[in-house]
Amino acid sequence: MPFTVDQFLEVFRNYNISVYPMQIFFYLLGAIVIIFSFKRTLISDKIISIVIAFLWLWMGVIYHFIYFARINKAAYLFGAAFILQGLLFLLAGVLNNKLSFRFRRDIFGITGAIFILYALILYPVFGFFMGHVYPASPTFGLPCQTTIFTFGILLWFNKRPPLSVLIIPFIWSIIGFVAALSLGMLEDIGLLFSGLICLLMLATNYKKSMLPAQ
């Protein structure tokens, strides 16, 4: 690692102090996504896609380019990937209408709900007990929590999402997990598990859809 644990946590401290109260706004955005996944309207899918896209664009530009790049120049590469992911959500969900979300009482809906619960509530709780106390701690709207949240929403699909929107989040789930584990951020174990489970579940669903009817 080109930086220490203290430097890494200091990035979170600087970010959280500087952007406050955006953290509250991000939780409101998360609530909007959840509400529109339950309460379907003609524009529900576009609203959800815009919110998820905004979060990824924010992480790319604000977190990676402005804050994380101060201690790790690889952040410019990560930021570019996050910006691309945000644009992919806009392209697939807003322009091409290929993203549709609805909570269902099945294995996909329940698993997605667990990921969302972990991202919004359990992640910061676990982090607190591991000594990662606000403001020197990750918050929703930053890469690891938001990626877990994204995997949860993708499992609430009403229309199978294109695999293109899964590639960057899955790659980040590996990179982020390995880096965070080496820095003692054990709450990010959920990042890798959510990425693997989401990819396997959606890949299995794709495979079943391609099987000939019996």
Walk across the major sheet and give the strand order.
1-2
The rough form would be described as globular
Low-confidence residue ranges:
210-214
Number-wise, the strands total 2
Mean pLDDT: 93
Radius of gyration: 17 Å
Strand content: under 5%
Name the helicity range.
over 70%
Structure, explained:
A two-stranded antiparallel sheet has the order 1-2. 40% of the residues are buried. It has one domain. The longest helix has 24 residues, at 44-67. It has helices at residues 5-19, 22-38, 44-67, 75-95, 107-129, 143-154, 164-182, 189-210; strands at residues 100-101, 157-159. It is 71% helix and 2% strand.
Fold topology:
Elements: H1 5-19, H2 22-38, H3 44-67, H4 75-95, E1 100-101, H5 107-129, H6 143-154, E2 157-159, H7 164-182, H8 189-210
Antiparallel strand pairs: 1-2
Helix pairs in contact: 2-3, 3-4, 4-7, 5-6, 5-8, 6-7, 6-8, 7-8
Task: Give the tags.
single chain, 214 residues, mainly alpha, two-stranded antiparallel ribbon, 8 helices, globular, disordered C terminus
In short:
71% of the residues lie in helices and 2% in strands. The chain is mainly alpha-helical and 214 residues long.
